[in-house]
What does this fold into?
Amino acid sequence: QLLALGTLHGVDLSWSVATGAFTAAYVAGYLSMLPGGIGMRETVLAIILTSTGVPATSALALAAASRVIVTVNQVGAALPFLLFRSRLSDIIKAD
It folds into this structure.
């Protein structure tokens, strides 16, 4: 809901529609055979949002923005571990 408010003007999603659509899309992405659910999650999110009255172009833009935000968050969470991985292996070899 906050992503829609921050990126698209005139799109008003209720909390239940926004969380339900994102959750359903996220689960569909996990069940997808594609790595990271690429394409599946965005398609499901766009279909659900379009069925609730959001214009198709806005639904696609919101799905793309959602993919970017999730990817940035996942990379941001993994980055510290990737940066310190070599130091940890040096510590283990020293013992």
